[in-house]
Amino acid sequence: QVQLVESGGGLVQAGGSLRLSCAASGRTFSSYNMGWFRQAPGKEREFVASIRRSGGSTYHVDSVKGRFTISRDNAKNTVYLQMNSLKPEDTAVYYCAADLYGMGVTAGAYDYWGQGTQVTVSS
User: Fold this and answer.
1) What integer pLDDT is reported at residue 103 of this predicted model?
2) Which residues, in sequence order, are bridge partners of residue 13?
């Protein structure tokens, strides 16, 4: 069992930056690949980025490449999402998720989810 708690969301102007954190409970955090997803009002949850359990491999959706960076610190049981050059279309609730086997783009493949943190980007 893994419990995930996101933090770091808030209101920011377009062009600004935020860093989201996702703290995991349990001693098995390093066994899980981790992902970030987001969900805007009236839209489906969409994949943002993922990172392998070792941190040696990452994947970012095209719409955030060059602006967002996923990273993790296994010693702190935490995964991060650094978000730069934010745009109004990045406004959403951001969720972290854990997957024991893969690091894919499908939300249904992930085993555990946090409660989400709101990110609002004003124009």
Assistant:
1) 85
2) 122
